[in-house]
Sequence to fold (247 residues):
Amino acid sequence: MIVSWIIRTMAVSQRTAVMTGNMVLLWLFINTFITSVFVWSFLVTASVLAAIQYIKISPVNESRISQNILQLFAVDKDNVKSNTIFHKAGGFHAPENTLEAVEQAITMGIPAIEIDLDFTKDGVGVLIHGPKVDATTDSKGFVSDFTFQQIQELNAAANDVNRNKYPVARIPTLESCIEICVRNNLVVFIDCKSNPKETAKLVTSLYAKHPKLYDLGIVCSFYPTIIYAVRFVFLYSYLYCTCCCRF
Fold:
């Protein structure tokens, strides 16, 4: 009897020891897991915050924004034209996003225009609402599928309401438009549609070639990546950029 009791007691003690050991191991595993998750979460969060701190770009100081731009937003009830910005360079009065439209805006005394920038297959920045040529020209397809030479053969007035007055118009380069704007002191909103790197490269060259753009140009886009790419290039300048909102 005594021997049997001792054997049963030892068996129970062994099971208890095994269970206790398993519980200790489980506790150690859970504790290690929680600690690891906390440590990794801390490291990841710290890394993300450090990366944001490194790549963030401070907003432009509003006191340095050109008066040519600010006056567009100063409401003048006696001179409504002073707050007028022609969309697509004034597509209601001439074929949209063409030099004819830009010239018409100047003739009408409009202080500012908005134009749309996209890129051809060979990387030339042209004025077109895009991403396709279907809406305004006598052809079909994506802007990026045409070389600049090919896109110059299209008629940008083909589907325009003013085609009787302007039977033929060509898709111009951004640079040709900017030259007219600078020469005539016309404020220009450049709505960038694609290719952040190409956009930043082109805008950089145009601002370097035409410093007056700092008083006349606003780079805008629905895409934050484009605005970031442009602002990153102009990190220490007062180029005015804005990201539009799509509703």
In short: The mean pLDDT is 81.
